[in-house]
Write a structure and sequence with these properties.
Elements (H helix, E strand, L loop, with lengths): L26 E9 L5 E10 L4 E5 L6 H8 L7 E6 L2 E2 L8 H6 L1 E5 L10 H12 L3 H14 L15 H13 L5 E5 L7 H15 L4 E5 L3 H4 L5 E6 L2 E5 L5 H5 L5
Helix pairs in contact: 3-4, 3-5, 4-5, 5-6
Length: 258
């Protein structure tokens, strides 16, 4: 199957990240703790490594910490203890002025889309590139490529509010990949979609993954985990339980999966 134009990670030059990081996991969690109440930690001593180019599901019951984990990755929240390494750098020790550089290399797709509904598709997708101050011609080219990639070629002038829910989610995916990130985080991206649309959106993320992008896909929808066996990380009682080949009977006997 033709996977379309290849999206390469945005780290083309400079020393924002260790050069040796290319030979390390793209993500490492080392004894990560996070709690909003002292008697109910969300993450308790999490240890986990994600390799470059992996597609990993994160699942678990509501409140298990899926969204918290993703927010820690793009520095919307901070760990209470331990550390998270992204491309060789400790996220929690980045200076405020360095956080935008971190986020240039991470695309995020949210369950509620977070689109500007009265803007056009192209205007929404352009936002990450305009922040970077890229030339207008390059922005137009990137937008066109991203929209083709998500099946919305030629729809850039459409107002987002006129699109269906599935189409709006595709716009959100295009916005996440238009900056050519090394990592894409999907936070319950199919939670508001019907089952067939959910499978379609999962397929879109699989296409993105096929270009070499690392994808972390958080979901509580067990049916998506069964579409194709992939590594699954189950968050439960503050711990991460790793199922490298997907959930099977033996793993499920040990888990309470919502």
């Amino acid at each position: 199957m033709d996977s379309g134009p290849s999206f390469s990670p945005m780290l083309r030059s400079g020393n924002r990240f260790d050069q040796e990081a290319a030979h390390r996991p793209i993500l490492s969690f080392e004894q990560v703790h996070k709690a909003y109440r002292s008697d109910a930690p969300v993450l308790r001593g999490m240890n986990l490594s994600i390799q470059r180019g992996e597609f990993v599901f994160f699942t678990g019951p509501s409140g298990a910490g899926k969204s918290t984990l993703l927010r820690l990755l793009y520095a919307a929240e901070t760990v209470d203890a331990g550390r998270i390494l992204f491309m060789g750098r400790e996220v929690g020790r980045l200076r405020p002025e360095s956080i935008p550089f971190l986020r240039r290399n991470i695309g995020v797709v949210f369950q509620d889309f977070k689109l500007v509904m009265n803007w056009s598709v192209a205007e929404n997708v352009a936002m990450p590139l305009e922040v970077l101050g890229l030339p207008e011609r390059l922005i137009r080219t990137r937008i066109g490529e991203a929209l083709e990639r998500v099946g919305l070629g030629g729809r850039g002038s459409d107002v987002v509010a006129t699109l269906s829910g599935g189409e709006q989610q595709r716009v959100a995916v295009a916005r996440a990949i238009v900056g050519e990130p090394a990592l894409v985080l999907a936070d319950e991206p199919t939670g508001n979609l019907d089952p067939q649309l959910a499978v379609d959106i999962l397929g879109l993320f699989e296409d993105i993954h096929s270009t070499g992008v690392t994808v972390l896909f958080a979901t509580h929808d067990r049916s998506l985990l069964d579409v194709r066996p992939r590594r699954v990380i189950v968050l439960q009682d503050g711990k991460a339980i790793d199922a490298p080949n997907g959930l099977d009977g033996d793993i499920e006997d040990e888990l309470r999966v919502a």
